[in-house]
Design a protein that fits this description.
single chain; alpha/beta; Rossmann fold; 6-stranded mixed sheet; 4-stranded antiparallel sheet; 7 helices; 26% strand; Energy-coupling factor ABC transporter ATP-binding protein; transport
Length: 235
Amino acid sequence: MTKGIEINNVALAREGQPVFAALSLRLAERRIGVVGRNGAGKSSLIRLLAGLMAPQAGQVRVEGVDVVRDRRAALHTVGILFQNPDHQIIFPVVIEEIAFGLEQMGLPRAEARARAQQVLERHGRADWAERLCHTLSQGQRQLLCLMAVLAMQPRWIFFDEPFASLDLPTTLAVEARIAALDQNVVLVTHDPARVAGFDRILWLEAGEVVADGAPDEVLPRYRAAMEALAKDLAC
């Protein structure tokens, strides 16, 4: 049984600006969506969960792992995909990109490359192994980042605006891949339609949880608030 995510009294500031004051949450559902306007703290939350940012106070644990202090264990526990895959891809060649995380987990280079090849084969992309990453399309680079994360077999995967800059066919393909994942998912999005079928929705505003519950409870309130804001801006 999953221990889930425990956020205990977290305080976080970025560039001297407060993001969270005393945030506490317990997350255990398989599919969790996070909505809110720009600057609400959505991306900061995702980075906290992945252990990429350390809070000034409080603690974040995922499946019992302190993801900031125990980075080796975090590799087995959490994975993250950023909005722009170019901010995530490090190596010029596809198989090197996938093998890198496995080497970070302690696998010898030859074994890491063999595992990376197996991942490519499972996704029907064996022919990508020696391709240069920059020759892939935006959607293909995003799939590459997902395969690199899946190679490490984390229990949770966090997505930060994965549908941004994608056309509709690619958006639908990415959405289907996320739906098929065995891992627990936390997904940040501006588009409430993308998380309408999720188990739980968090609505953030200015670092506070405005609403937390089922999609049919939270999303209509969120849409109504955004529509009212749009009317005010149009005046």
